[in-house]
Design goal:
Blueprint lengths: L1 E2 L6 E5 L2 E5 L4 H13 L10 E2 L2 E5 L3 E5 L1 H10 L27 H20 L5 H8 L7 H15 L6 E4 L6 E7 L11 E8 L2 E9 L7 H15 L1
Helix pairs in contact: 3-4, 3-5
Length: 234
């Protein structure tokens, strides 16, 4: 990320994709001209699609979704016509680590399914953060139950392709942070899971769901661990 020290200009780079955040002023025209002088680039004008993210501009703000990517992964695993469900995982689901090594094909399939869903969590879907973090714990030795759970997530995503992030236009600078934890949620290790979500001007900008490093001895201790994660992050 490059930040101009005088103008409100930001340039983000990812390999050969460049995004410029700058008001439509003479500075923008000059910047594009200078870049074209130094590099061979294509000016796509207003950004509408970047690294798998759809960018939609409205009168109230900017919406980010990953509809095309969702369609791609659903087709990849044959789930594009699957029946939809209302929650990422079945209520009260209990999963434990596989006892014996599964066939390599099954392990690869499970890991590929979880890996493809991780990019949704990274991009625009904090609602999947806990679910994918939870399922990823079993990806080294998955069972049929783990694959069934992963397919359930795909069914949930299939019914909510348009869900994403919304960044409202505002001049305020407010940060809101929410943290939470379960207690001894992992049946294999008895460790708890922390989660936090950070809102800047009512726009979700950061989120995390992660198993705690040590075993909490009470629900209060588990909550303090979660607060520590969130506080250190902000």
């Amino acid at each position: 990320m490059f930040i101009h020290n005088k103008f409100e200009c930001y340039i983000s780079l990812y390999v050969d994709d460049i995004a410029i955040y700058l008001a439509d002023t003479p500075h923008m025209t000059t910047l594009i001209k200078d870049l074209k002088t130094a590099f061979e680039i294509s000016d796509l004008v207003e950004a509408s699609f970047l690294l798998g993210l759809h960018i939609t501009y409205t009168s109230d703000g900017i919406a980010l979704t990953q509809q095309r990517y969702i369609g791609t992964i659903l087709s990849r695993f044959g789930m594009e016509n699957s029946n939809t469900v209302s929650i990422p995982l079945p209520k009260g689901i209990t999963l434990t680590k596989g006892i014996t090594e599964q066939p390599k094909e099954q392990v690869t399939t499970c890991q590929s399914m979880i890996g493809s869903l991780m990019y949704l969590v990274t991009g625009t879907r904090p609602d999947l953060a806990y679910t994918i973090s939870f399922l990823a714990q079993f990806s080294s030795c998955p069972t049929d139950e783990h694959i069934k759970a992963a397919k359930h997530v795909f069914r949930y995503v299939n019914g909510r392709r348009n869900l994403g992030l919304f960044c409202p236009y505002t001049t305020t600078h407010a940060i809101d942070v929410y943290v939470d934890a379960d207690f001894a949620g992992c049946h294999d290790t008895r460790r708890s899971t922390s989660g936090y979500i950070v809102l800047f001007n009512n726009c979700c900008v950061s989120w995390l769901s992660k198993k705690q490093a040590s075993v909490a001895k009470s629900t209060t201790e588990a909550e303090f661990f979660a607060m520590s994660y969130g506080t250190r992050h902000i």
